[in-house]
What does this fold into?
Amino acid sequence: MPLKRAFTFVLSVIILGMVLAGCSSDSVTNGKDKIYLFYSPQCPHCENVMPYVKNVSKKMDVDFCQVEEMNDECKAIAKKIGLKGVPTAVYRKGGELKVYVGEIKVKNLMLKVLGEKGST
It folds into this structure.
């Protein structure tokens, strides 16, 4: 009888783990690649990258995070990366976050996603 209880307990822990893993933030977004663009409407560098980001948004999921009015998801990402300035792009690919800060780096990321060659 103790073996049956142990088996039931282990099976319950495994099922609970699977349920909790299914509730993680990556599974909520289906694990798809996504870009978060942190910007401000008053930022001229943000304005310069915006056409590139809008083109990318036609190809993949982009969350436009205006720093003055961020939603909860943007706030969580900003906190996780220690957001310090704009424009900043956060590329979530395969569960990893890669951070690109500044006009040139953000523009080059967008060109890379679009399949074009960026400048250095």
User: Anything to note?
Assistant: Helices lie at 2-22, 25-28, 44-57, 72-81, 103-114. Residues 1-28 form one domain.
